[in-house]
């Protein structure tokens, strides 16, 4: 089972994601903003990261870029969570190094499946 | 018979002093009452907003594909200490589509180098529409090598804040321009909230002002205020109270009345096409931000447009306030001088029914209770003792006087604090509350008098410089460069 | 004497006023904190059940029972979280949560609340019904679009979009004009959510509505027309570009055609670059051609680089930037027209700017370039 970094500023949604992933047997590293996410990831290298795009202070895209710059996390799969399904957003995300996109409102079951799909693709 | 004459003169003097002192008393009653009314209006507004917060749908504004994109304009002059963090924070704001335009107004320090290092800037050829005439020559345009970061850095020869802002507006690609200070720290949702009136009433809203609060004493991490605290110096603490009463509640009240005159240069959102149409900011004006808004009012009224200029109290731009007497004095002199010159430049509007509420109400109020306030305040400081000495007024009157000016003033400030506590709750510590209460008392004991003195100096400076400044200001005529189309409709 | 006594009275009033305000501030703070703490405590107890309800795969009977049995106070503490999650979650989790709202009688309360006396209560009810997606609320929400309170109208419009019943389309379009309006951005979002079934109503409004209404309709068509069966939308938009009385509507219609991205959009857009069209329309048409990705547009766009003013040539250059190698070649020719720092006039300057962006995207740093200025077009 994998270690999943979850960065999401809304505590309700974060708790739900954590609950769902732990239910599926993963270890979750929750973070309420971008800075915390990077600190957490520096302490314990995650196998996959789930990042909310719009977090105040440091956006999910910034976290994504920062993770890509670090050798330990340069290759881990990254999934972005966004409130907007606009092409331009997807493009920016992919350019920043994201692997997949989940649009809110999301289905919790779908979310775990996506996480597992990118993990399988990455061969963990 | 000289004794009789002297007595008659003395009696006449006494009569005059009585009349003047009664007038002064009435003046202070009016000032404080007007503030109390504005605060009550603001409180009603806050209650209304608060009750409807849960379903106001800010989230859906964020997800809206058609929300108007914004160009943030940050004029910078020698800001090397904070510029990198400020830009990073601006880029991290919550808003669906925006770009940041930094205008390096001929900096002589490392401002540009900081940005170049941070974003790996590369110089780009760029065609600029000469929508607004700019005085300082544009030298070069730079963008981050990573094309996804929506940042543009424009370097130009020094021309002052207004000129730099105008250059920024020229480079802005989006239909809304947000003018901010290079050192202001915005709340993450500030853009979303300040753009809200444009979404809700796109055909009428032409400008929106946001709240300014004082950042001194607050903890700022990564360009974001993480903990709000009262500053440590009394001089700044009093300013916190002052900003709360005048800039937050006062402007909310004026906005409700449809007579908002000032949008701070540290946080204002405008329709780009209209800023272009009125020729941008006036580089010769000292209070260029207020002048822009007044000129906007003037143009809209003259065109008989159905328009709105609004203030929103929720989102905050945190800004550093002067913490020494010397710097504060300079700031206040400049403010008052700006106000004096503004009133002079647009004197034709004052009391003119053609300009509606602005002409008949807002401007006369500004003239009477803002521009002349320092004169009256210092005057009362001389005339009340004079009245007492000459036996024109008794101690009882003096008590009344202090009650009307000082006591009533403290009451008004306390009301403002109560509104803050119920509507915004920015300060969390109990000690902040005690500090605020004491600062409210201290404001009337010295601070206001000092302000009045600096205000008079500002007015005097405006009067002295009159010929030169006004000589240059005849350039109002070229403020109509075609009005190149515009995206926002009528 | 009277003066003196009266001033003592006033002083007393003043001091009492200050004391009272101080008390109000302190009690306000104490009460707020106490409530916040209590709610946090209560919410923490109920929260695991809420997560189990939404995140639970199959068996949600227990969390459902537990949450249904919560007391009023406990429910009120957890309600904000429940509403957030209701808005952010789809699929099974959403259904389970909706079931809970039903069980607690909240859907029924909300239906009744639509005719409450207070505006806040009406808006609250409409909000919940929208999140729950209750189709039986549609007729009453449609009536609420004419409510006297602006925010009730806005919340009703949003709820109608979330419920997604296309019968509401004409009413939504109707509240773009008249005395009781709903902000256009809210109507747009609702109409987009209604999707293609709302299209006939939109096309009809394009022929009849006022200019601001037509502007919104055109935007929505651009967002919902891209899917199968855009047959009626494209001719309607093409007509709007060519002959709508309002310039703003024409420009937006051009933008919408670019978003639709089908082949039929090409010809109306090419037509709209003609000098006979207003500058704003031409500029939008040029940009839309870039978004459309039609290489056939390259010669036309190339010629537009020489148009007067700033907006049209600039949009044309940006469009060419998006159209790939053949268009880049055209840009290179234009840029090389007269080499030198600012030589070649505006045509070359616009081309150079666009090329520099192309190069940067490919990782090539552009050579140092000069800033060219274009005088604003006069006489507009």
Note down, in words, how this protein is organized.
The complex is a heterotrimer of chains A (124), B (490) and C (380). By secondary structure, chain A is of the alpha/beta class. Chain A is 47% helix and 19% strand. A 5-stranded parallel beta sheet of chain A has the order 2-1-3-4-5, sandwiched between helices. In chain A, helix 4 links the parallel strand 4 (78-82) and strand 5. The relative contact order of chain A is 0.19. Chain B is of the alpha/beta class. Chain B has a domain at 38-331 and 474-484: Spore Coat Polysaccharide Biosynthesis Protein SpsA, Chain A. Chain B is 54% helix and 16% strand. Chain B has helices at residues 2-51, 58-63, 83-91, 111-119, 161-171, 190-200, 234-257, 272-277, 288-302, 325-345, 356-371, 373-389, 395-423, 430-464, 466-472, and strands spanning 70-76, 98-105, 121-123, 126-129, 138-144, 151-156, 176-180, 185-186, 205-214, 219-221, 224-227, 267-271, 308-319. In chain B, strands 3-5-6-2-1-7-12-9-13-8 form a 10-stranded mixed beta sheet, with helices on both faces. A two-stranded antiparallel sheet of chain B has the order 10-11. In chain B, strand 1, helix 3 (83-91) and strand 2 form a beta-alpha-beta unit. In chain B, helix 1 (2-51) crosses helix 7, helix 7 crosses helix 14 and helix 10 (325-345) crosses helix 14. The longest helix of chain B is centred in the first third of the chain and has 50 residues, at 2-51. Chain C is mainly alpha-helical. In chain C, helix 18 (311-322) packs parallel to helix 20 (345-361). The radius of gyration of chain C is 30 Å and the shape is elongated. The chains are: A alpha/beta (124), B alpha/beta (490), C mainly alpha (380). Chain A binds chain C through residues 10, 12-13, 15-16, 19-20, 23, 104-110, and chain C through 47, 51-52, 54-55, 57, 81, 84-85, 87-94. Strand 4 of chain B pairs parallel with strand 1 of chain C, so a sheet runs across the interface.
